[in-house]
Amino acid sequence: MSLATPTILPRPLLFPKLLPKAPNPQPAPIPAQGKTYGRLNASRNLQREMDDLSDEENELEEMNIVIRHRGFGTLIPIGRNLTQQEEKNDAEEDDDSSDSGPSNGPPSVGEDVGENSTQDLDASMEDLDEEEDEEEDEDEEEDEEVEEASSEV
Question: In whole angstroms, how large is the CA radius of gyration of the chain?
Fold first, then answer.
């Protein structure tokens, strides 16, 4: 490919430039001497800069929180059955149920009706533990009678 062109204008590039334009090489002009600090507010918007810094700080705090709580709701620690989020929810439910006392008004949907009533709801149920104890006592008495009868013979 030859570099010579029939005109003064260069040929169009076969491959377009992909890089952005280079920054302007001329520096910003030096401010005039004798300006006081009071004019700094005129050249800078300090409120906007403070808001930008606050936004950046909030973003960094959120990112740190996300990093600290990574796996909080998904990973199960070794030796446990629940995630940390589930354990926290269970602890909150336990606290809520133990803190709630009887209220003076009618029971709400979440409250147990049996807590406020004086009627014993378990009275109609049979106590199976006492029956088992009685059966064991009867069995022991029968065994003793059989042993006494066999020893007499």
Answer: 43
pTM of full prediction above 0.85: no
What is the full per-residue pLDDT of the chain (153 aa) written as tens digits?
566 667 777 777 777 777 777 777 888 787 777 656 666 666 778 889 999 999 999 999 999 999 988 888 888 888 888 888 888 899 888 887 765 555 555 555 555 554 555 777 676 676 666 666 666 777 777 777 767 666 665
**DSSP per-residue string spanning 90-139:** HHHHHHHHHH----SS---SSS-GGGT--S-TTTTS--HHHHHHHHHHHH
**Burial classification of residue 58, based on how many CB atoms lie within 10 Å of its CB (0-12 exposed, 13-18 middle, 19 or more buried):** exposed
| CA angle 120–125–94, rounded 5-degree value | 60
